Amino acid sequence: MSDTTSAAVLGTGIMGAPMARNLARAGLSVRAWNRSRAKAEPLAAHGVTVTDTPAEAVRDADVVLTMLHDGPAALEVMRAAAPGLRPGTLWAQVSTAGLEGLGELAGFAREHDLVLVDAPVLGTRQPAEEGLLTVLAAGPEAVRDRLAPVFDAIGTRTVWVGDDGTAGAATRLKLVLNSWVLTVTHGTAEALALAEGLGVAPADFLDAVAGGPLDMGYLRAKTALLLEGALTPPSFATATAEKDARLIVAAGESAGVRLDVAAAGAERFRRAVAQGHGEEDMIASYFASFDGSDGSDGRGAGKD
To answer: Alpha carbon of 140 to those of 96, 145, 232: distances in Å?
Structure first.
């Protein structure tokens, strides 16, 4: 790693904040910006310079990382950062923007002579905290060595799937992966909701599948969050999951693929958000199975 490598992180939420910390821990010079500066301020204790504006954050940065809610949010922030950008800057777009959103970002990159690397990450809050994310990346081979210190700091593996960051190869893979994650989340939530409704103990459900092909660590991890009432801080927020579900459905429609389960899942997340669970872990899909303002009709798991 070159000791001159500098990085700017735009967006320091659930994922962006630990990325910034891990970059600083790896010895990079890091500046960070967040819409709410107060949420970014704790990063200063980890050697990160917190700035007032996106333009200040990206000035003289070798690599700019955007970890924002969606494509429009990333585009808005990069437009604000434009006065501080210089031609040839590497832009690692690590949030889940969707295919339509990526197209607009690619246009911005061309307009400002930036090297866009399509690099959404696979993982949630804990892997981000531990630097154990998987980076799904597409970008020119010529810039990969320059990106290595950054990607190595935030993850344990970088999967290169294309050499054109504007073509969306990494974003397409991320949408496929997220479709699986969200489907498993809803399956877990609905099984637990049905168990609640039928008077079946969750422990009996888990015992019945233990060690077999239907068992998985993800099932047990999400079940534990729900039963223990440990939905905040979220590993993956319900509101973000709804956004990703709608990006997945839109991508399917653009490809002529009907995704009935994904569409129904997006609606479940919408109901859970409307019930007040938007900032809780996405296993709060469980509450969408019940009536009542809190989504549980007084019966919800982890409420005792």
So the answer is: 20, 10, 39
Cα atoms in the Cβ-side hemisphere of radius 13 Å centred on 247: 28
In angstroms, how far is CA 301 from the centroid of its own chain? 26
Non-local CB neighbours of 50 within 8 Å, separated by 6+ positions: 31, 32, 33, 34, 37, 40, 41, 43, 44
Q: What's the pLDDT tens digit per position in 211-239?
A: 999 999 999 999 999 999 999 999 999 99
Task: Name beta bridge partners: 30.
Answer: 7
Contact assessment for residue 100 and residue 128, using Cβ atoms and an 8 Å cutoff: no
For the cut 50, the answer to whether the pLDDT of residue 294 exceeds it is no
| Locus of tokens 């168990």 | 195
CB 73 within 8 A of CB 101: no
pLDDT for 274 beyond 80: yes
Q: List pLDDT tens digits, range 27-76.
A: 999 999 999 999 999 999 999 999 999 999 999 999 999 999 999 999 99
Judging by DSSP bridges, how do beta strands 6-10 and 63-66 pair with one another?
Answer: parallel
**Which tokens is 164 given?**
């054109």
pTM across the whole model: 0.92
- Burial of 85 by CB count in 10 Å (0-12 exposed, 13-18 middle, 19+ buried)? buried
Strands (DSSP E) contained in 21-173 are: 29-33, 49-50, 63-66, 90-93, 115-118, 121-122, 133-138, 155-162
Alpha-carbon torsion angle 43, 49, 54, 55, nearest 10: 180
Tell me the C-alpha distance between 199 and 193, whole Å.
Answer: 10
The whole-angstrom separation of Cα 32 and Cα 65 is: 9
